[in-house]
Amino acid sequence: MAFVKLYREKLRENYQYLDSIFKSRDINWGVVSKMLCGNVIYLKEIIDLGVKEIHDSRISNLKKIKDLNPEIQTVYIKPPAQRSIERIVRYADVSFNTEIYTIELLSKEAQKQNKIHKIIIMVEMGDLREGVMGEELVEFYGKVLSLPNIEIRGIGTNLNCLSGVMPTQDKLIQLSLYKQLIEAKFNIKIPWVSGGTSVAVPLILKNARPMAVNHFRIGEALFFGKDLFTGKTIKGMYNDVFKLFAEIIEITEKPNTPIGELGENVAGNTFSMQQIDDFSSSSLRAILDIGLLDMQPQYISSDDMDILIIDASSDMLVVDITFSKKNYKVGDLISFNLRYMGALYLLNSGYIEKKIG
């Protein structure tokens, strides 16, 4: 059976590294847990780090966090669906918002539950996902200010999530200017200016973020230590907090060319003869006990650099071990490094066992 392993000490060291960076710069931050897909084993590991704030995009996951530790501030990181208002007020202390009508519903529900619900008003900064348009922001903010049981915790933006727009210094300066404009207009102080996700960490390391931007939501950098500007691992962090292990269930020398009339496979792909250099050649192929139900091959890479991933069907992954220096046998485990989306698929699968290392 294939399984994912979380390495506790590497996670802790990554967390402490980030926490020291943020504390030294007087930045608030929360851990984005959505990649964990509500897995209680792994959520406990996050909570045990001493995290005070956790962000997620699934209400069911926020409920689990509150069940584990009611003192943790939970943040719902997408505009609420109207049919979910009651549960969002119940399990999310804070939510991201872009629609007046939705905030009015949150206000009414918060009154029913005798709660103050905090919101962050998201601002469109060019990535073209969620966000109030900049020219409408001041009027929007003024309407929200009058709503009972709603506390505006701050303004924020999402970048690099849809169109790939990067959180440059200029973008964050623009967000800071919106803060100044609103504070001057309404004679208030905005506690949070939430400048984005892990993609902004390199700016923080370079001390290039405007001082007014004082809040970030971090997931990928914590779990993968990744600099999303360069694609490299941030110095001092681990990129292998998570690993996939899959068992070999067959090893056989087979031709490199399929035999028979070709059509689409289960994934809708058609084999191309252009993939083959030598039609008379064969390779030593291993089949692993994992497939497309659980992962996507493009988001994983073998620790053994001499292994080539061929393709996958719904429940099996085929790899070429011809040039590996290891003498693999049926029953052996092959380990894989994961990209963010690779881990997301695996952690969302009920068929993959989750372990702690």
TrEMBL record:
Q: Does the keyword Acetylation apply?
A: no
Matching Pfam families, A to Z?
Ala_racemase_N
Q: Which cofactor does it need?
A: pyridoxal 5'-phosphate
Q: Does the keyword RNA-binding apply?
A: no
Q: Which UniProt keywords apply?
A: Isomerase, Pyridoxal phosphate
For this UniProt entry, what's an example GO CC term?
cytosol
Coiled coil location: none
What's a Gene Ontology MF term here? Answer: alanine racemase activity
Limits of the Alanine racemase N-terminal domain: 9-225
Could you identify this protein by its name?
Amino acid racemase
State the organism named in the record: Flavobacterium seoulense
> Could you read off the lineage of the organism from its UniProt record?
Bacteria, Pseudomonadati, Bacteroidota, Flavobacteriia, Flavobacteriales
